[in-house]
Specification:
With 470 residues, the chain is α/β, with parallel strands linked by helices. Helix content is 29%, strand content 23%. The radius of gyration is 25 Å and the shape is globular. InterPro entries: D-isomer_DH_CS1, FAD/NAD-bd_sf, FAD/NAD-binding_dom, FAD/NAD-linked_Rdtase_dimer_sf, Pyr_nuc-diS_OxRdtase, Pyr_nucl-diS_OxRdtase_dimer. It comes from Croceibacterium mercuriale.
């Protein structure tokens, strides 16, 4: 008879979300079992945030050197050593990944199970080593994987994904990137700035699904300076002796040859091998368990989701927050502990960076725009390009969202996300100090527009009939 292990909280998956869930459950007094087939570290360290930023850092340096003439600095011929670029990327990536694995190694080995798991009941898991886990509650944190449709899978070793691109021994000469989400557009621009001939293809018409048309237009102009963009097209890739031949049709049509194809078509959640039908969960139209983001609980069950597998906001800080919420609620089950979620906030590390924060323009909202094409500090640094749009709620001008592509965008975005989360108004932001000359000063243009459109009426003093404070 198979051995049966028991615990209060079983966590499937030892990535960012799973580790946070296990830690939160344990710190709240629950006994835990953490289940993972490899315990190889997090997606961020291995194939996500860190290797992509290492490639982008190399591309940024190459682009900076190429622009030195603007400052009267003459640079001789610059050679990009592809194997050295990729070698440093992997070396640093491995160092980051080792750090996450070291944290996992510090866990109690009696509570870490190297195995895959599938449901055989709402509170029971079958491990591939034959053992069974009986848990009071279960957290699913199995992450996501790159989508590879059949036409792309047939390309064999000419196909790259966001999991495999980091293993390239050298930079390709010609690269087709399919998909203009955050991953696709980041890597397309980075490879292009490292001397690769890049073409970007997308079935849609919106890069990174940006909400503001003005910001989108600014981003598109920036991206098209480095690479060729084909939007509104369907593509058909074919393997050839020399590489890959791509034919496309739609808003434009044509065909071209490439050394490699990078499929950046999204990362669906890893749910296929869990036998969710045995868990009795209600699934949405995409096959993801329906869940409450304030608790991460799936319906009325004792099962919780955390991280990319929830298909909400596939971002590291959201995965960590998911895990903490799911683990705390799994430990406290059945008593719910509802947690307010942070303002939605995503960054794409193009140059300049793109950010989407909070709510878009809605009925009754007002907008303010800041143009970084002639902003003082940006012009000083030769980075004067991009646009920022703020959204504010009427009638008080409370900030509710922003879209931007601007120099220093990752820092501007953090400041705006914090202001939105603290429910600041445009006038309250303007009352704060802005040092001169900084990129932050560029916000004043947008904030003043919002303040002009949302004048705040002072309460009237009932005795004098004049506004209080007048």
């Amino acid at each position: 008879m198979a051995d049966t292990l028991t615990c209060d909280v079983a966590v499937i998956g030892a990535g960012t979300a799973g580790l946070a869930a296990e830690r939160a459950a344990r710190h709240n007094g629950a006994s835990t079992l953490l289940i993972d087939p490899t315990f190889n570290g997090t997606t961020c360290a291995n194939v996500g945030c860190m290797p992509s930023k290492l490639l982008i850092a190399a591309a940024t340096e190459a682009h900076r050197i190429a622009g030195a003439d603007l400052f009267g600095i003459r640079v001789g011929a610059v050679t990009i050593d592809g194997p050295a670029v990729m070698g440093r990327l992997r070396s640093e990536r491995d160092r980051f990944a080792a750090g996450t694995r070291h944290a996992i190694d510090r866990l109690d080995p009696a509570t870490t199970l190297r195995a895959t798991a599938r449901f055989i009941g709402p509170d029971r898991l079958q491990l591939d080593d034959g053992r069974i886990v009986q848990a009071r509650t279960i957290v699913i944190a199995t992450g996501s994987s790159p989508l590879v449709p059949p036409p792309f899978a047939a390309l064999g070793d000419r196909l790259l994904t966001s999991d495999t691109v980091w293993d390239l021994p050298d930079l390709p000469r010609r690269l087709a990137v399919v998909g203009s989400g955050s991953i696709g557009i980041e890597l397309a621009q980075a490879f292009a700035r490292l001397g690769v001939e890049v073409s970007l293809f997308d079935r849609g018409h919106s890069l990174i699904k940006l909400r503001c048309k003005k910001v989108h237009a600014a981003l598109q102009a920036i991206i098209e300076r480095d690479l060729t963009v084909h939007q509104g097209v369907a593509i058909l890739p074919d393997r050839t002796a020399e590489g890959v031949r791509i034919r496309w049709n739609g808003d434009s049509s044509g065909e071209a040859g490439f050394d490699m194809v990078l499929a950046a078509l999204g990362r669906p959640p890893n749910l296929d091998r869990l036998d969710l039908d045995k868990a009795g969960l209600e699934l949405d139209e995409d096959g993801v368990p329906c869940h409450d983001r304030s608790t991460m609980r799936c319906g009325d069950s004792a099962i919780f989701l955390a991280g990319d597998v929830a298909a909400d906001l596939p971002l590291l800080h959201e995965a960590s927050h998911d895990g903490a919420i799911a683990g705390r609620n799994a430990a406290a089950f059945p008593a719910p502990i509802r947690t307010p979620r942070h303002v939605p906030f995503s960054l794409t590390f193009t140059d300049p960076p793109v950010a989407t924060i909070g709510d878009p323009e809605a009925e009754g909202a007002v907008t303010g725009t800041a143009d970084y094409g002639d902003q003082g500090r940006a012009r000083v640094e030769g980075r004067n390009e991009g646009l920022l749009t703020l959204y504010a709620a009427a009638p008080d001008g409370r900030l509710i969202g922003a879209d931007l592509v601007a120099p220093g965008g990752e820092h501007l975005a953090h400041m705006l996300a914090w202001a939105i989360e603290r429910r600041l108004t445009g006038s309250e932001m303007l009352e704060l100090p802005f040092y001169h000359p900084t990129l932050e000063e560029g916000l004043k243009q947008a904030l003043r527009t919002i303040c002009a459109a949302t004048p705040i009426e002072l309460p009237v003093d009932q005795d004098s009939g004049t506004p209080s404070g007048a």
